[in-house]
Design a protein that fits this description.
It contains eleven helices and 13 strands. Helix 1 packs parallel to helix 2 and helix 9 packs across helix 11. It is α/β, with parallel strands linked by helices. The protein is globular, with a radius of gyration of 19 Å. The longest helix is centred in the N-terminal third of the chain and has 21 residues. Strand 5, helix 6 and strand 6 form a beta-alpha-beta unit.
Length: about 325
Amino acid sequence: MARILVTGAAGFIGAAVAQALLARGDTVLGIDNLNSYYDVRLKQARLARLQGDARFEFRVLDIADRPAMDGLALSGPFDGVVHLAAQAGVRYSVTHPAAYLDSNLLGFGHVLELARRCAVKHLVFASSSSVYGANARLPFSEHDNVDHPVSLYAATKKANELMAHSYAWVHRLPCTGLRFFTVYGPWGRPDMSPFLFMRAILAGEPIKVFNQGDMERDFTYIDDVVQGVVRVLDRPAEEGPASALDSPATSSAPWRIYNIGNSDPVRLLDYIKVYEKVLGKKAVLKMEPLQPGDVLATAADVRDLEQATGFRPTTPIESGVQRFADWYRDFYR
């Protein structure tokens, strides 16, 4: 049994990961600042599912608050840290950059310091497929250069990968970054397209279809993401040979980067058709231009993840959307 710190424990992925860790017998300390970026009631409902377990402790805490993070470090030790707290959203970063500087840069620095001080066995942290930015070659590989982000959000996630590498190099702190590809499913985030499409179709309201629908996304079901996170957590990054420095995804320090995606990108208009079939209702489409910070297509190369953990996401979009729809109708009555 391990004691794991999960940041962002009231979030979509954070709550699901905490639940999986508890289910296998771990003790979990979860933290979250419960900000109002989206409906706090949904965050509280996620937490309510966890708080019935005696091995779960929750604290309202902002990772950008240095004294609070210093105090948290003193409450260790922790065997591992799963860092999922962040200011999310590509488009929001265009209009609210300060939130990303505070949480994703300053806050991540505090998480690294906590992990160092507590001598954790493994720090697993959330990166994003957004780091691939202007890359045009598909599928996206961790071994490709990602020096051309097209949003501040993406830039902060790339910065997190570099910051973690410096701690892995100097302090030999095992760190693994996970680039998530459009995660969806029950208990999801209301600001993301799955939620927005579900709500709009059921209400008979128009869906904003950006770039006239000429986009593709690698949608990844939440259960697949959780399994990937837990499997990676159990396999701390190890020091590699000097030749590992030849790739942006590996290092001679105990640091690694993996994609977690379904490896089966879906065209946006085909994705909407899945919702129409599941809900038995036609969508009203409102065509819009490409938004600042958006990319045309994402697709994950997950061969490295599969080689390291024996796992790759497999949930088909049709069954994933059906499960999401069942949850949505039950939760919102």
